[in-house]
Fold this sequence. Notes:
This is Crustapain-like. Keywords: Disulfide bond, Hydrolase, Protease, Thiol protease, Zymogen. One of its GO terms (biological process) is proteolysis. There is one protein chain. This protein is an alpha+beta fold. The protein folds into two domains: 84-149, no CATH class; 167-416, Cathepsin B, Chain A (Alpha-Beta Complex), CATH 3.90.70.10. The chain has helices at 35-41, 84-96, 104-116, 129-147, 165-172, 223-240, 248-254, 266-276, 317-327, 339-342, and strands spanning 153-155, 185-187, 203-204, 278-279, 302-303, 306-312, 330-334, 344-349, 363-373, 377-383, 395-399, 411-416. The strands form two sheets. Strands 1, 2, 3, 6, 7, 8, 9, 10, 11 and 12 form a ten-stranded mixed beta sheet that branches. Strand 9 and strand 10 (377-383) form a beta hairpin. Helix 6 packs across helix 8 (266-276). The radius of gyration is 24 Å and the shape is globular.
Amino acid sequence: TSTTASSKPDSSTASSAASSNASRARPFLNATTPTSRRAAVRGRLLDDAEPAWASLPSYEDASTTAATSATGATATPAARGVSRSVLSEWEEFKRKHNRTYHTRDELKRMASLRRSHGLNTSLDTHHSDEDRMNVFIGRKMVIEEFNKQSKSFKRALNQFADLSPQEVVTKHTGLLLTGRKPKGMPFDHKTSGRLLPVVPRRFDWREKGALTEPRNQATCGCCWAFAATAALEAKNFIRTRRLVPLSEQNLLDCDTLNEKCDGGTPWDAFDWVQFNGGQEESTNYPYEVLPDRCRQDKTRLFRINMRGYMSVYPATEENVMTALVTEGPLAVAVNPNLASFQDYREGVYSDPECSSAEDELRHAMLLVGYGDDPADGPFWTLRNSWGRDWGEGGHIRVARKDNLCGVTSFAVFPVLGDAPAAPPAAPATAAPPPA
Length: 435
């Protein structure tokens, strides 16, 4: 399976979709791009991606066939060939996911009105309802064709059905590896005293009660906060047998080592929590999607006696498995760039195009277990931060071979000391002297 046509940029010189001046376009790979050229650009980072609308198909191109292979290339359906049932699906999707789009005519009228008042007219008509429906239909056709084949996993329409793969990466991930590689002490099971007599054939921290329910980062690039928080919750549970939901918003607002919704790393979050002395509970500091001023109350902090973090190195399968079993869930770096990954529904994900190249690792997730499927072979189990409706209840099983998607490349876990002593009680107010 190859990537969706819009998922690989042809040049790394275009402006970021998140930047305010992201207006330059460049050609994308598509189904007709020569194989040699596709190979030349495969694996490049999507950092400086063009505006997401540039990858959307043209709604007016009624001559384009609606048929498509399961290569992941987004098809462009004929404008006059949309059935009522598909239109109904599109309207239901928008209702379910709270999407509202203007038509192209409405956007043009808005631009004309702004121009008549001497205002900026750079309204992006490629975000029209027609174009977004076209993306939805394109994904739908690719998924249906893919699922007809005998594969180890299935795909399904989800909250990303009207977004290009590039937009998903831009808005729903957030791992920044460049210049931020983990610097924790290396964990090597051969020298750490954690050598297991026999590594279990299967293991899952969910079965031990160490994890809260999967959460949803939504349209904020703060996967780093969710992976770090989940790892800390689990580590605290292993130490105290208390599962305390902690606040990602506390990190988003107050962590000065990461870049809020513009990205970061779980290990920098560990460093900040150690410096801060703990993290607020989510009931006191709930997630709001957008960053705000730091509003933490240190008297409410859940005290975490952080001693730092360790990096699982060497990044061998056996070493990662041992660290997972003996230390707890691991925050890992994963490649989320392919449409097949974003559309994952169930089964053992095995798309060979999911590269482990360092510049493709754009998403932080939590490695919670591993196992061996009788039909599809060994796998890792990872918890995502895209909500419970994504994948297998918010999780994905990734084939445990050839470091698919980079699961074992950067694995870290927090190191906690003994439970801190309770703070001393405030001194009682002295009684006033007798009159």
